[in-house]
Amino acid sequence: MMFFLASPPHAFCWGFFAHKQINYDAVFLLPPAMIPFYKLNIDFITEHAVDPDKRRYAIPEEGSRHYIDMDQYGSFPFANLPQHWGDAIQQYSEDSLVAHGIAPWWISSMHLRLKKAFELKNPEAILKLSAEIGHYIADIHVPLHTSSNHNGQKTDQVGIHGFWESRLPELFAQQHYDLINSKALYIEKPLQYIWQRVYESSLASDSVLSLEKNLANSIPSDMRYAFETRNGMVVKQYSSSYATLYHTKLNGMVERRMRSSIFTVASFWYTAWVDAGQPDLQLLGKVKLSSEAQTDQKLLQSAWLGAKIMGRSCSN
Ligand SMILES: [Zn+2]
Question: How far is the CA of 47 from the centre of ligand 1 (A)?
Fold first, then answer.
């Protein structure tokens, strides 16, 4: 029997479980002209939902694409932070922007690349970019991805990041969440739309921290942790009874953010396809990775298995 203290060896944004679930569920919101191709390749879309987190072990620049520290720019409505990258660079240096995270702008650039892949009718690129934009969109729905106190390190709450985005969905999503959504919608202004989701996350981040802090102060500390099974291993982690209390205090927040992630991912896929002129996807078929892409995939996998994360992780 194996024991790990406090956290498993790898901690991921939203956790592997939730990222895969979000991409999987997004497929079913697509219109009839898109859904057969995505359904045929749903394993690809699901499996590759976590590639961007694996890449954080291989490429230093990857880290800042997963978050933005909104508290560095004042408070809502963040009038001092331009939404457009070109304007933001005028106001802050690129180094400074990168240091505090570039997630919304990165999603915008991924959106343009996905549109291009649709225009070229390149099935492998469409699926890879769809899977990966799904990851980044899901990340900005996590409140602590918009706070410099991203793991409660400034408030003696270390571990809260994985608690909120991995432990809670793993415990409650499958049995208790209603993740049914309306169909994907065309997004007129994708960059603005993403910023709205970022603002929502930023507004929620205070509650994520303060609710846990109040709860921690109200019950004995030895009730907070327990040795319980996670992914087939016994680890010391937030106890399920403590998780249930916290989850109740959050009043559906994790479920709402997950549901919004799914809808937004599907809507971005749909919008990129419409903007590319609604190419016919019927003949594209099931995609197998090219040998070049398979090599990249192996490098990603070995970096993830063997190396230390570069830049900010979700667990420290
Ligand atoms: Zn991530």
Answer: 14
Higher pLDDT, residue 313 or 152 = 152
Q: Label the pairing between strands 3-4 and 225-230.
A: unpaired
Query: What fold does the segment set 3-306 form as a domain?
Result: P1 Nuclease (1.10.575)
Tokens 């890879």 label which residue?
Answer: 128
Report how far ligand 1's centroid is from the alpha carbon of 302 (Å): 18
Placement of tokens 């590759």 in the chain: 48
Give the residue-averaged pLDDT of 144-172. Answer: 94
Give the pLDDT confidence of 235-265 residue by residue, as tens digits: 888 999 999 999 999 999 999 999 999 999 9
Distance 195 CA to ligand 1 centre (A): 17
How many whole angstroms from 197 Cα to the centroid of ligand 1? 16
Q: Could you tell me the distance, in angstroms and rounded to a whole number, from the CA of residue 268 to the centre of ligand 1?
A: 17
3-state class of 25 per DSSP?
helix
Q: Which of 238, 13, 33 is nearest to 137 (CA)?
A: 13
Residue 162 CA to ligand 1 center (angstroms) comes to 12
Instruction: Give domain limits for the chain.
Output: 3-306
